[in-house]
Inverse folding.
């Protein structure tokens, strides 16, 4: 669920080789003085831009120095977890996703931002897209994170290929219609699959799109009272549909294909369709993309629900133990603010604006001139996402493509390994999900016990 492309790969390589533990803003960690804050964040391209722009803009305006510690995604998640769970207070701000923020809020590892928002009308919280705010709100109703950029999911397809086969994409396609289209355009060009879908193991790989399919087929990981449903009929129907579709009309090597592989397949003309993150559109419509202008964008396919797109956001949270919360908020207000987007557009490029969080972004003519092919569809996808009610039944925890509990990354990854094996033809879907049910029941039992104990 992250943006890819040549620019991203180059910047990531730079970060890994020269700034794995500190950014352009200075060394990481330490007290840093009264007029400085320490920020721990992931090394993706848009945050690299943030580092480079901070000293000459935010620091110049506020006098607050920002000391960045920058790490690859898996490493930064581990370090943030260690730092915030211990409340060491070494870092004031960290990049957290909408998966971690509700969990950290329950654990009181991060500070509520609502008091700062109320005292900072220039930030304009109402401009933040409502599902983003909802996904970053704690059980107590307070906001605990602000998005830096966000995404949902939609269906991307080659308009010219569908037209060549006399096929028209419905305005709001169902998954059954998508399967029919995939069959119609399979091998429309030599070596072109009808569709590309993630099959790579990982809770954030295959189960990112697959859980949205489960939701709209009427399934769920857990019922509201913590009954595991991984091998329930609706869950099985969804996974069987997904596995059959990718095996019959999907890409070569689907069991090991993730975001990057499918992105490359669509760009290189090896797939006619792809269901995945809205953030991928920037790469598809890049100036050097061979498919620029050839791609159509349709809402995430549905079955029983009105919408089914996921919701994800890299966001900012303030450590509860921080003694510099006022300065930390000033940084967040700047980094997630309207003026910062304008700054990126003017100094880096409008295609690199950290979008997906503010309604005003999608009214900016400069941004629309660059992202017009997919901007309206992206905004619509995010606005249609409902992180608290993504399916047909009540859920025990917030989340669309995940269940927002600490155990889910391990549970989702273990079940995904069996599903990937089913895609590879090594086990049946029933076998994969029966194994998954056992794992899910272990998790559910712990939560039922807590409910019974009133904890």
């Amino acid at each position: 669920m992250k943006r890819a492309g040549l620019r991203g790969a180059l910047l990531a390589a730079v970060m890994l080789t020269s700034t794995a533990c500190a950014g352009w803003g200075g060394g990481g960690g330490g007290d840093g003085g009264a007029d400085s804050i320490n920020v721990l964040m992931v090394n993706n391209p848009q945050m690299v831009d943030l580092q480079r722009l901070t000293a000459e803009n935010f620091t110049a305006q506020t006098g607050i120095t920002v000391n960045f510690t920058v790490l690859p995604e898996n490493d930064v998640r581990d370090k943030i977890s260690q730092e915030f769970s211990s409340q060491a207070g070494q870092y004031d701000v960290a990049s957290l996703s909408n998966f971690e923020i509700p969990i950290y809020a329950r654990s009181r590892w991060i500070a509520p931002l609502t008091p700062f928002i109320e005292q900072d009308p220039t930030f304009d919280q109402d401009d933040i897209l409502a599902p983003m705010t909802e996904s970053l709100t704690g059980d107590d109703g307070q906001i605990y994170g602000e998005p830096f950029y966000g995404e949902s999911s939609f269906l991307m397809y080659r308009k010219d290929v569908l037209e060549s086969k006399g096929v028209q994409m419905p305005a709001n396609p169902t998954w059954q219609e998508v399967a029919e289209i995939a069959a119609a355009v399979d091998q429309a060009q030599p070596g072109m699959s009808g569709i590309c879908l993630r099959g790579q193991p990982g809770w954030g790989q295959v189960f990112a799109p697959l859980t949205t399919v489960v939701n709209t087929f009427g399934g769920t990981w857990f019922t509201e009272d913590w009954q595991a449903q991984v091998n329930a009929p609706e869950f099985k129907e969804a996974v069987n549909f997904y596995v059959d579709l990718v095996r019959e009309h999907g890409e070569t090597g689907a069991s090991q294909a993730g975001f990057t592989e499918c992105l490359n397949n669509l760009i290189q003309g090896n797939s006619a369709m792809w269901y995945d993150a809205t953030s991928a559109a920037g790469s598809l419509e890049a100036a050097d993309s061979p498919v620029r202008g050839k791609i159509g964008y349709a809402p995430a396919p549905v079955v029983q629900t009105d919408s089914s797109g996921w919701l994800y956001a890299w966001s900012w949270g303030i450590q509860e133990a921080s003694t510099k919360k006022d300065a930390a908020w000033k940084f967040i207000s700047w980094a997630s603010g309207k003026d910062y987007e304008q700054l990126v557009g003017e100094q880096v490029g409008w295609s690199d604006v950290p979008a997906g969080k503010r309604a005003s972004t999608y009214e900016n003519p400069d941004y629309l001139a660059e992202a017009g092919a997919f901007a309206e569809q992206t905004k619509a996808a995010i606005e249609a996402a409902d992180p608290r009610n993504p399916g047909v039944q009540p859920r025990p925890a917030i989340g669309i493509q995940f269940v927002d509990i600490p155990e889910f990354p391990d549970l989702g990854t273990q079940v995904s390994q069996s599903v990937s094996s089913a895609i590879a033809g090594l086990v049946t879907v029933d076998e994969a999900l029966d194994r998954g049910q056992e794992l899910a029941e272990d998790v559910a039992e712990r939560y039922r016990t807590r409910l019974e104990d009133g904890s």
